[in-house]
Design the sequence.
C-alpha cells in the first residue's frame, strides 16, 4: 500500500486534474454578464448592452424615435453546441427600429480563449412568439408562432419548430417543420399558473391561481373558488374572449378573495392570447388601457 506521503501526492494530482477539467469545461455566464456585454449581428456594427438594454441615436435630431435593443428576460439555454466539451449559452435579443414591429434574434454566448463573448447571432423573425426552447443533439430548437403566408403583419398564426446548428461559420438554420396553426386548441394540455396579473403586478405563489383550456371553455381555481367560463374566438389569429365566470361560493381570507375578484374581472376582459418566451400571455383591456396577464405551465407532480 502506498505510504501517507504518496497518498497525499495522489490526492493532490486528482484535485489538480479536476480543477483543470473544470476550467477547460468553462462555466455558464451569469445573468449580469449576459446583460452587460457586446453583441454583433443585430446592426452593421456591434451593440453593447447596459443592464440588458441598448439605445441608439434618434433617427431625427432631437426626435423621440430611435433604434433600441435588449436581452429577453427569463430565456437561457445551456449546452454543448459544437462538440468541444464546452457548454455555450443561447439567449434571445429583441430589436425595434421605431415602427410597430419587434424583431427577435437568437444569440450564442460562449467562452473562447478564457473570454466570454458573443459567438454568433441570427434573425429569427418579426413579431415571433416563442412557445418553448431546447437544446437537443447539439442543436438549438425553438417552437414558435410565426407569420404564415396569408397572415397579416400584426397577427402571426403559423406554428413551427425551427432549429440551428453552430459552427465556426456561425449559426446555420435547418429546414423548418410546420406543425399547425394557432388556435385555442394550442393552449390545451397544460394547466397554466398565473404569475402576473399585469407586467408590473406579480402574484403570490400560494394560493395558486390557474386555468385550463378544454374545447370551448376555461376552468380553474381562482385562489379560493373553482370557476368556469365560455370561450369565443375572433376573426384574426390570437383574438379571444372569455365570458363571465361562474364559480363556487367558498369564503377565504379577505386578501385572497380580493385577488380572486381582480383576476376573474381581468379574465372577463381578455381580448387576445399569445406566448411570451414559454409563458401564456392573455391581453386584457380596461378603461382604454391594455394589460397582459402571464401564466407558466404547471410543473408536473
Sequence:
Amino acid at each position: 500500500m502506498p505510504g501517507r506521503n504518496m497518498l497525499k501526492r495522489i490526492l493532490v494530482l486528482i484535485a489538480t486534474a479536476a480543477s483543470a477539467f473544470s476550467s477547460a469545461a468553462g462555466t455558464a455566464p451569469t445573468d449580469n454578464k449576459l446583460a452587460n456585454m457586446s453583441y454583433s449581428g443585430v446592426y452593421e456594427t456591434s451593440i453593447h448592452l447596459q443592464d440588458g438594454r441598448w439605445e441608439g441615436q434618434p433617427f431625427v435630431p432631437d426626435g423621440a424615435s430611435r433604434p433600441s435593443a435588449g436581452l429577453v428576460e427569463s430565456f437561457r439555454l445551456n449546452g454543448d453546441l459544437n462538440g468541444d466539451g464546452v457548454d455555450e449559452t443561447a439567449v434571445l435579443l429583441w430589436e425595434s427600429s421605431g415602427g410597430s414591429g419587434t424583431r427577435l434574434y437568437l444569440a450564442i454566448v460562449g467562452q473562447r480563449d478564457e473570454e466570454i463573448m458573443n459567438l454568433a447571432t441570427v434573425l429569427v423573425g418579426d413579431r415571433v412568439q416563442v412557445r418553448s426552447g431546447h437544446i437537443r443533439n447539439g442543436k438549438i430548437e425553438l417552437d414558435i408562432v410565426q407569420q404564415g403566408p396569408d397572415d397579416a403583419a400584426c397577427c402571426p398564426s403559423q406554428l413551427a419548430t425551427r432549429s440551428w446548428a453552430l459552427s465556426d461559420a456561425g449559426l446555420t438554420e435547418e429546414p423548418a417543420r410546420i406543425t399547425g396553426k394557432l388556435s385555442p386548441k394550442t393552449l390545451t394540455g397544460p394547466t397554466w399558473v398565473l404569475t402576473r396579473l399585469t407586467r408590473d403586478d406579480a402574484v403570490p405563489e400560494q394560493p395558486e391561481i390557474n386555468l385550463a383550456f378544454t374545447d370551448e371553455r376555461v376552468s380553474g381555481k381562482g385562489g379560493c373558488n373553482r370557476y368556469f367560463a365560455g370561450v369565443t374566438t375572433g376573426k384574426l389569429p390570437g383574438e379571444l374572449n372569455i365570458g363571465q365566470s361562474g364559480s363556487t361560493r367558498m369564503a377565504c381570507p379577505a386578501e385572497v378573495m380580493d385577488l380572486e375578484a381582480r383576476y376573474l374581472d381581468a379574465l372577463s376582459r381578455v381580448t387576445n392570447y399569445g406566448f411570451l418566451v414559454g409563458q401564456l400571455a392573455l391581453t386584457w383591456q380596461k378603461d382604454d388601457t391594455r394589460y397582459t396577464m402571464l401564466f407558466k405551465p404547471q410543473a408536473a407532480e
